[in-house]
Amino acid sequence: MVLHAKRPNDAPHSLQAEISTRLIATGLVLSYVTALSDLIGIGTHVGPDFNRPFIGPLQVGGIAIGVGLILFGLVLYHTSRGQRESSSLEFLVTRKGNGDRSDDI
User: Fold this and answer.
1) Does residue 100 sit within a domain?
2) How far is the C-alpha of 33 from the C-alpha of 29, rounded, in Å?
């Protein structure tokens, strides 16, 4: 929300920004579902034997993947073009600015 608020209102939406918001939302849903799977009833420790929620190794892995998706989405959103003419990651495609030839791939 902070990155979205810092972006100017008249900035055009790029494909990179749209993909990044969907990655962030997917990571958030994945993190919530894996963290709360026992409470939802889809986990492995549901039933009367367990009085408190238990977070197992599969849930920790799911949370880690979800947080990784969120972070990757935030990086993509931050580097999307905003008011600039091109993305901050444009050098990956054009090889400009890293000492290589400046012709396109």
Assistant:
1) no
2) 6
The set of residues, in sequence order, having a beta carbon less than 8 Å from that of 21 and lying 6+ positions away, is 73, 77
Locate tokens 């799911």: which residue?
A: 62
Q: Is residue 66 part of a domain?
A: yes
Give mean pLDDT in consecutive 10-residue pieces for the chain, a chain of 105 residues.
Answer: 72 80 94 85 67 77 95 87 66 60 47
At 19, which helix (H) or strand (E)?
helix 15-35
CA distance 26 to 19: 11
Domain limits for position 37: 15-94
Residue 32 in any domain: the answer is: yes
In 36-102, alpha helices (H): 37-40, 57-79, 91-94
How is residue 22 written in tokens?
């969907």
One-letter amino acid for residue 6 of the chain: K
pLDDT at 49: 66
Q: Per the structure, how many domains does the chain have?
A: 1
